[in-house]
Amino acid sequence: MAPPMSANEFLAALRREGTTVAEVDGWRHHNRAGHGLWGPVNGVMIHHSATSGTDSTVRLCWNGYEELPGPLCHGVIAKDGTVHLTGCGRVNHAGGGDGDVLKAVIAEKRLPPVRWADTDGNVHFYGFECVNRGDGEDPWPQVQLRAVEQVAAAICRHHGWSERSVIGHLEWRPGKVDPVGFSMEWLRERVRERLK
């Protein structure tokens, strides 16, 4: 458990890891403050956007939609590897998930099967939407996968966490499938190697 990074700390951590960052105007103060807690933070959650196109995905994640107001993540990871920062603080990305999974993340242990949606993940996880349709056919360019790895490692490095603090949405909430196209064990291994 850790206090969340400030906007300056967040940006610096990403840049130290070699991440290419685009700051969406106003991201430092764009959040869901007043709609629940933000922190203590325990991990990083990876999603696919189920969209195509960087600009439209960034707009969606900034604005949200009628049923779910934005921001919908802290950053959008584009196909070209650029991370577009869209929020700082509490964002609507994780929703309710399994409290036993959160306990495993905190303990940095292997995750149990996801069963419940009894815990607010927006309190505890940094969230990133990766531009991908999530249909199993949309490709994941290596530069985009490297950016996913960099983002996760940057946050883990800042907080002193291991790769076990990186999870997918499908590992948090019943019925979710994202990200489709790579396994979280594969990503965690990449993060583990980067953190050495």
From TrEMBL:
Q: Which residues form the N-acetylmuramoyl-L-alanine amidase domain?
A: 27-180
Q: Where are the transmembrane segments?
A: none
Q: Which GO BP terms, alphabetically?
A: peptidoglycan catabolic process
What is the designated name of this protein? N-acetylmuramoyl-L-alanine amidase
Q: Tell me the organism's taxonomic lineage.
A: Bacteria, Bacillati, Actinomycetota, Actinomycetes, Kitasatosporales
Please state the span of the N-terminal signal peptide per the UniProt entry. Answer: none
A Pfam entry, by short name: Amidase_2
UniProt GO MF annotations: N-acetylmuramoyl-L-alanine amidase activity
Q: Which organism is it from?
A: Streptomyces klenkii
